[in-house]
């Protein structure tokens, strides 16, 4: 467990590809939610518009359609938002 926690903390400062390879993006986001970490994500909306957001993850789950979803407080918008994990293009600690 201790090694996993250290791997997750180290992976939070890497790009999405490296983080996903290390232990899985949903697990990283779940860890951030459990520990109260704020993260900076690159995100691409359904229409293709890209943005960078600082978020405080709250919950990670798999939808009925099989997509990983993230509920987080979005500091850019000042309210809770739901993000599709597959649309996160980068991740680092804020």
Structure write-up:
With 94 residues, the protein is of the alpha+beta class. The protein contains three helices and five strands, in the order αααβββββ. It has helices spanning 2-11, 16-23, 25-35; strands at 39-44, 50-62, 68-74, 79-84, 88-93. A five-stranded antiparallel beta sheet has the order 4-3-2-1-5. A hairpin with a 5-residue loop joins strand 2 (50-62) and strand 3 (68-74). Helix 1 runs antiparallel to helix 2. The protein is globular and about 40 Å long. It starts with a helix and ends with a strand.
Q: Average pLDDT value?
A: 83
In whole angstroms, the N-to-C terminal distance is: 24 Å
Low-pLDDT segments, ≥5 res = 13-22
How many E strands?
Answer: 5
**Element order: H for helix, E for strand:** HHHEEEEE
- Structural class designation: alpha+beta
Largest sheet data: 5 strands, antiparallel
Percentage of residues assigned to helices: 25-40%
What secondary-structure arrangement, pairings included, does this model have?
Blueprint: H1 2-11, H2 16-23, H3 25-35, E1 39-44, E2 50-62, E3 68-74, E4 79-84, E5 88-93
Antiparallel strand pairs: 1-2, 1-5, 2-3, 3-4
Helix pairs in contact: 1-2, 2-3
Short précis:
With 94 residues, this protein is of the alpha+beta class. The chain has helices at residues 2-11, 16-23, 25-35; strands at residues 39-44, 50-62, 68-74, 79-84, 88-93. 31% of the residues lie in helices and 40% in strands.
Key words describing this protein structure:
about 90 residues, alpha+beta, five-stranded antiparallel sheet, about 30% helix, globular
